[in-house]
Structures are given as C-alpha cells and as structure tokens.
Design goal:
Blueprint: E1 2-4, E2 13-18, E3 21-26, E4 32-35, E5 40-44, E6 50-51, E7 64-71, E8 79-86, E9 95-101, E10 104-112, E11 116-121, E12 132-139, E13 148-152, E14 155-157, E15 160-165, E16 177-178, E17 190-198, H1 204-212, H2 216-221, H3 231-243, H4 246-267, E18 284-288, E19 296-301, H5 319-326, H6 332-347, H7 368-380, H8 385-393, H9 396-399, H10 406-411, H11 428-439, H12 497-500, H13 520-528, H14 530-546, H15 551-563, H16 569-588, H17 590-597, H18 610-624, H19 627-630
Length: 632
C-alpha cells in the first residue's frame, strides 16, 4: 500500500508510507499550499508533479484501489491524473491512471489505446467546484468494466463504461507520478490530499470510513439516532465497523485473502474465447452481386442445400439444427467421410483415396459396398469411434501379414485391394512418441500446458519479429522434454523441425491427408537428434540394468522392445558383431564414450560400464532407424 498524507504545509518535499516503510519524495522547485481536510494541502500545477518511483506496477488481473481528497477550483477545466503510471505514443498509452476531468473522475487501464483498454468514469457533475470531495475507485482484477466501482464522499455512484475490452499487460516502463502522467494530462490548480493506493479491492464500508474519518466531528453532529434513514448515522455505522469492530475486520481480512486467491487462480489460467448464439435474433445474409461486398442484393436466411436431404422437422435453424442435419439417419455422407478417414489412419490410404474430396473430381471408392456397410455400422453403433476402430483393428484384413509375393505385387501393386497387411511410415508424432515409449522416457500424463522439447538453435530467432513474445526458444527441462508430441508448443511461422521433417503439416490450413516422403534428412534426424540419442541411451541403460550388465541379454531386451519380436539368428549375428566392434572402439576411446552417454537431460546410470553403455546406445540407435521400427 502507498499513502501520501500531503499535510506538510511548506517546502517541496513530502513524506509518505510504502507498506510500513516511511519514504520521502522530492517535489518541484516551487509549491503552493492551501487549507485542506487534514491540514494544509499542496496545489498541483503542470510544473510541479511528484515522481513516486517504481511503484504501482499493476497488472490487468490484479485487484487494486485508489483514493484521494480532491479540491477543484471554480475556474477548473480540462483534467489530469491524480495518480498515473502511463506513457504516451508510441507505447499505445500502456499503463493506468486515476483521473479527474471537468466535473467527473474515473480510471483508465490500457494495453493499447483505444482498441484494447478499459475506461470507467463517474457521471457528469459528480464533483462540485470550490469544495473538497473524497473520490475513490476499486477494481476487482476481472479485466471487465463492471469490475470497477466508483465512490464520491463514501457513497457509490454509477459508472459510465466507455471502453470495455482489456487484454494483455498494462505494465508501463515509466514511474508512478502524482498529478500527471509521464507525458501530459497534468492537473492545473487542483489541490489533493491523503492519496492512497491499495493492492486489493476495498470494501464499500472501508471507502466510507476513509471519507468519514477527517470529518468525524461533523458527521456526529448530524447523526439522528431516532431515524433509520439518516445518512450520517449510516456513515457512522460503517466507520465503526471498519475501525472498531474486530469481528467485521477479521471477516474482511479473510474475504480479501480468498478474493486474492481467486484472482491468482484466474491470472494463471489462459483466456479462451467462445462463441454463443445471439438471443432473440435471426441470422441473415445477402446475395452479393458478382461477389462484391458493397453490392448486396436479396436477403437470405439460414438453410441447407435443397439438393441434399431435407432439414429435420422441428429442428432450430441454428448450429444445433445443422448438427442434427449432419448426423440425420438419411444422410450417409457424414458417416462415409468419417469412416474413410479412420480407415486412412489405420491402412495408410482411405477406401476413397481423395479423403478431402468426395465429389465428382475425387477418386471413386475402391470398394463401395464395404464403405457403405461400415458407414451404416458406424451409424447403428451410435457413432462410437472406439467401437469402429476396434472392429477395424481386429479384422482379418488388418491383422494379415505385410509380406508380399510376386503374384500380389502384379495384381495389387499399391495394396489398394488389401492383398496384404498395411505397411507405411508412421506419422511424425508417432515416430517420436514410439521412440520415447520404447525407451521408457514417455511421460503418460494427460493434459496440461504446451511443452518445448529439443529443437535446433536459431529456428525461432530467424523468423521472429523483434517485439514477438516467442522471439527466443527456451527449451524445457524435466518431463517437458518427454511429453507426447501432441503437447509440443507450435509456432506456425517456425514449426518444430523434428516433426516437419516427417511431413507434419504447418497447421496454417486444415489437412485431411498428409503426404509421406522418404528423404535422407529424416534418417539424419533420427540418427543425430538429441531426443533420439537420449531415447537410445536410456533404453540401453534399462536393458543393461535388467540383464545385470550382460551384453547379449541386454541386446535381446532392446530388440524386443523396438521390434516387438526376438531377433532372428542371422540378424542376431550381425547385431552382436556390431555391438562387439563398438564396445572395442569405446574402450579404446573412453572420451568418445563419455561424450555420447552425456547427451540428453537424464543422467546415465552410474553402475553400468560406460563403454558398454555407449556401444549398446549406438546399436539401439541403429535399430530405431530400421524401416520395421519407423513403419507401421
């Protein structure tokens, strides 16, 4: 809390309190004083504002309150900030201020004026010239204008909400000032006293007590204890509660603590924009002449194409009605499209190859009766995706061997007739997740914020704007490196290279069907990316620990986790010989072994021989690059 009594009566320096600390603030070279509610009060002019230092660094999601006694001269016009921490252009006036203007007062909270800002002011003529008024504002941290309350002489007044769209930060690099902003809005001839700033929302009773305290004797003289509607009696009751009633004060402190906790929870939650139907209105549009927006013709209302099945009887003509129309029993297209996409995920190619085009320009289904049967089965099963996927993966077609023969290649070269089991390289996210899962590094936790795993240096910096909040890539540590690829933070101007190499789309447009390429760069990534090196090393360490350091048993463990089968005799000879050669190399070059096993965030196991761990790491890394591992 900041409090400036402003009662010195002479000089140009004033003393205040910041929390429990007494602080002296330097003022202008010349300052005039006049009578106030607490004693002599300074008269602020355009040349004598006070610099209050790096205080009042408020955020849009933090509750706060400000109050002051203000005297407006008879000839007062214009306005300025009682308290303000706000600049001007080119900062977009970012910051906040507590202001008086003409015969009213109010508050600004600004991220960028006027588009992203909040402004609430009292009604006109709420302040009378030539007399002292106690003015106060309280804000609940909601970023909404209805979270602001205004008070004059301890009584709440209505607020005019002139701006009500606040997002982002209101932090200003400029210092807090009394009597003006950093640039302009300087008070001229206005006397102020008992200026306060709280980092919490004041209760109306507390505001009333601040207004009553300097005039307690006057209020007591006007109290009529026989009347229940006497304003002075109500003001005295509020003053007593705030200053003397310990039960009320304890409850108020508890309420403040709970509200602050609520605001902290709200502040760390992301802002999510949603849409909702506008009540009591019918959406309309116009046919545009030659598609030109400034030449509307006849008005049209929401409807579905007449060439398709009819709109459900009694359904509302809104998004709910459209949803019912899409899944109506007589509409087979939605089920066909959905079934085809699920088939594409499991078999690599849909029954309709052009999954993004079911029209006359797309490819015809390779098996129309099967597509129709699956669509009907999907509808009859209650649109249960899990049930349909179970049906597909347990079918004999899906479970058959991927081994081909010359006859099958001659008759079905692209496997569109499914003469053999499907075989295709996994999607980018699956390739990475499989390596992490096989190595035991994958974090199974569901949900949570986006994460930033390993990424080459300089990718973001090459495309980021200087003021961008994502100019620099700050890699996560700990479990953030090993979450599923689904949770990877995505910068559309610079997608994650490890996923983009494997044909992950940029997410700038909807992608129904991914392309699959086979390039040397993909092999370089899986062989050298720290994510895959660490996965191979962690898998090797687990295998050696489970086999008590025996190389041959560890080799079988690694193979079964990656290939989901034991090595064949011929394969085992090749892999065992490779392992022996690598271990001999690393025993002769211990520094190279140390350098290899140090890759990654997780530490290597201390109880395992470093040359053996390095050799098995390289073998695991090679197995991770086999087509049998990368392909489904």
């Amino acid at each position: 809390m900041l409090r400036l009594p402003l009662t010195e009566g002479e000089g140009t320096r004033v003393t205040g309190r910041v929390g429990r600390q007494r602080v002296e603030f330097g003022g202008p070279t010349r300052l005039e004083w006049r009578g106030g509610v607490l004693g002599p009060a300074p008269i602020l002019t355009a040349d004598n504002g006070f610099h209050l230092g790096d205080r009042g660094a408020l955020q849009a999601t933090e509750p706060f309150s400000a109050s002051a006694w203000v005297f407006l001269p008879e000839d007062f016009k214009g306005g300025g900030a009682i308290l303000g921490r706000m600049g001007g252009e080119p900062e977009g006036h970012r910051g906040w201020d507590f202001f008086v203007r003409d015969d009213h007062f109010g508050i600004h909270l600004v991220h960028r004026w006027p588009a992203v800002a909040l402004k609430v002011r009292s009604p006109g003529k709420s302040l009378e010239r030539g007399r002292w008024h106690h003015v106060a504002v309280s804000y609940d941290g909601s970023t909404r204008a209805d979270g602001v309350k205004l008070f004059v002489d301890g009584l709440e007044v209505a607020g005019n909400r002139e701006q009500d769209r606040l997002e982002g930060s209101i932090h200003s690099p400029f210092p807090l000032r009394l009597g003006q902003r950093e640039r302009g809005d300087k008070l001229e001839g206005v006397a102020v006293q008992d200026v306060r700033l709280y980092q919490r929302r004041l209760d109306p009773a507390e505001v009333a007590a601040l207004a009553v305290a300097p005039r307690l004797a006057e209020v007591l003289s006007r109290v009529d204890f026989a009347s229940t509607n006497n304003p002075a009696r109500e003001a005295l009751r509020r003053y007593f509660r705030v200053t003397q009633h310990e039960g009320w004060r304890g409850a108020s402190r508890q309420l403040t603590a709970l509200e602050n906790e609520r605001f902290r929870i709200r502040g760390r939650s992301p802002v999510t924009h949603i849409q909702r139907e506008k009540p009591d209105s019918v959406p309309t549009a116009h046919i545009l002449f030659r598609g030109q927006y400034d030449q509307p013709r006849e008005q049209v209302t929401a409807a579905t194409p007449a060439a398709l099945h009819p709109f459900p009887a009694g359904a509302p003509t809104n998004r709910l009605g459209l949803a019912r129309w899409l899944v109506a029993p007589d509409n087979a297209l939605t089920a066909r499209v959905t079934v085809n996409r699920l088939w594409q995920e499991l078999f690599g190619v849909g029954l309709v190859k052009t999954a993004d085009d079911f029209g006359v320009m797309g490819e015809a289904p390779v098996n129309q009766p099967l597509l129709d049967w699956l669509a009907v089965e999907f509808q009859a099963g209650g649109w249960d995706v899990k049930r349909l996927l179970t049906l597909l993966v347990t079918s004999a077609t899906y479970r058959q061997s991927a081994v081909s023969t010359p006859e099958k290649l001659a008759r079905d070269p692209e496997n569109r007739l499914l003469s053999r089991g499907p075989r295709f390289r996994m999607d980018a996210e699956m390739v990475r997740d499989y390596a992490l899962a096989a190595s035991g590094l994958l974090v199974p936790r569901v949900g949570g914020p986006s994460v930033k795993p390993y990424q080459p240096e300089g990718v973001w910096e090459a495309v980021a704007m200087p003021e961008s909040g994502t100019r620099y890539y700050e890699r996560d540590d700990g479990e953030g490196l090993f979450r599923r690829s689904l949770y990877t933070f995505w910068k559309r101007a610079a997608p994650p290279p490890a996923l983009e190499i494997f044909n992950a789309p940029s997410r700038e447009v909807c992608t129904v069907r991914r392309e699959r390429t086979n390039t040397p760069l993909q092999a370089l990534a899986t062989l050298n990316d720290p994510q895959y090196i660490e996965a191979a090393r962690h898998l090797a360490g687990l295998a050696l620990a489970r086999s008590d350091g025996a190389a041959e048993a560890a080799l079988d463990d690694v193979a079964e986790r990656l290939l989901a089968r034991p090595l064949r005799p011929a394969e085992r000879q090749v892999v065992a010989r490779t392992l022996a050669d690598l271990e001999a190399f690393y025993r002769a070059q211990p520094s190279e072994a140390e350098r290899l096993v140090a890759v990654g965030f997780t530490p290597p196991p201390a109880e395992v021989s470093t040359p053996r761990l390095a050799a098995l790491t390289m073998v695991a890394n090679q197995l991770l690059n086999l087509d049998e591992v990368l392909c489904k």
